[in-house]
Amino acid sequence: MSNGYTIDFVGVGEESKSGDCIIIQFGDFTNALSLRTIVIDGGFKSSFEKVSEHLTNVLQIDKIDLVVSTHPDRDHVGGLVQLVEEFDVAELWMHLPWNHNEGLASKFVDGRITDESIAERLRKSLQAARDLQVIAEQKGCVIKEPFTGLSFDGCFTVVGPTEDYYEELIPQFDGMPAQRSALAYVADRVAEGFQVLKKMFASWGVDQIDDEDTTSARNNSSVISVLQIDGRNILLTADSGITALNAALDYVESKTGPLTYNVVQIPHHGSRRNVGPSVLNRIIGSPVVEGTSGHKVGACISAAPKGAPKHPHQAVINAVIHRGGTVSVTRGITKSYSYNAVDRPGWVTSSSEEYGFVYEAEE
């Protein structure tokens, strides 16, 4: 058997609050010693038990070769502290924004702010990420910052963000003292409890999303990565937005030319704020004629059982399907993609999402 992979989108999340955890194994599945294990994000703190059960009972491992913290939101980093504490983790990739504070004070109007006070503000506002760094250092993990070009085992590569782009985003992070640019994101959070829904009517091939990037800076700082196994390509996007995705795809294409992706993570739990027609054309392909087979891309969305209609948004699901892709949504259930891997007893093929010609969406 040649090299293969399993990619498990673990069904983490809390009721209507979506989270992310992806567990990857790759190598020669006829030789267990050749397999490598990567965990990307760990969901909320409360997600640890489910993640641990999957690692221990399904994959039957207690050693993790690489843990990747894509960005410091609690629905991604929350479960990683206990994971690193209780499992044998060789290497941790995470950004350390408090180490990128040189010259930041000059970007704010308040003259009392110093570079060190900015670093301290970041440590406090991103406490879960800081805790992850501390426990990893105590456990003796190798810690690397995942900027564009960093590679693991020759087949798993960070394609975004660059260090320069990451440092441009830091002053706009939540909790910073000025120039908060993501007001739409804040307003959206405030309005969550007052959702007004309206009925939407869709036509095949017509997108109901746009190319405007309204993603928060912290989400655009997410690690974007590509796994390449036996000529197959997997794109993992965390919570990144259009700007970050386009930059990452530019990097990929500068190295290899455009890639055809077999599996794609749709970012930010399928939010309509993170993808648009242009970037989906690059990742999935252009719209196809209804009834044709299309591009055969498997797209997965990690979303809570009661996350809809926001997570995932039907307009995003439609945009992938009318480009020929198939969409799977976790909704609390782990979804797995595999190639050249051993069968798992009791696991069955899950159904794909259907096209929504009529659906409800936020006003």
Global outline: globular
| Largest pleated sheet | 7 strands, mixed
Uncertain residue segments: 180-192
Number of helices: 11
Describe this structure in words.
This protein is α/β, with parallel strands linked by helices and 363 residues long. The strands form 4 sheets. Strands 8-7-6-5-4-1-17 form a 7-stranded mixed sheet, covered by helices on one side. A hairpin with a 2-residue loop joins strand 2 and strand 3. Helix 3 runs parallel beside helix 5. The chain is globular, with a radius of gyration of 20 Å.
Question: Which short descriptors sum up this protein?
Answer:
363 residues; 7-stranded mixed sheet; 11 helices; 22% strand; alpha/beta; single chain
How would you concisely characterize the structure shown here?
With 363 residues, the protein is α/β, with parallel strands linked by helices. The protein contains 11 helices and 18 strands. It has helices at 48-58, 74-77, 80-86, 115-125, 127-139, 163-169, 183-190, 217-220, 242-256, 277-283, 314-321; strands at 4-9, 13-14, 17-18, 22-27, 36-40, 63-68, 88-93, 142-144, 151-152, 156-160, 197-201, 224-229, 232-236, 263-265, 298-301, 326-329, 335-339, 358-362.
SSE diagram, text form:
Elements: E1 4-9, E2 13-14, E3 17-18, E4 22-27, E5 36-40, H1 48-58, E6 63-68, H2 74-77, H3 80-86, E7 88-93, H4 115-125, H5 127-139, E8 142-144, E9 151-152, E10 156-160, H6 163-169, H7 183-190, E11 197-201, H8 217-220, E12 224-229, E13 232-236, H9 242-256, E14 263-265, H10 277-283, E15 298-301, H11 314-321, E16 326-329, E17 335-339, E18 358-362
Parallel strand pairs: 5-6, 6-7, 7-8, 13-14, 14-15, 15-16
Antiparallel strand pairs: 1-4, 1-17, 2-3, 4-5, 9-10, 10-12, 11-18, 12-13
Helix pairs in contact: 3-5
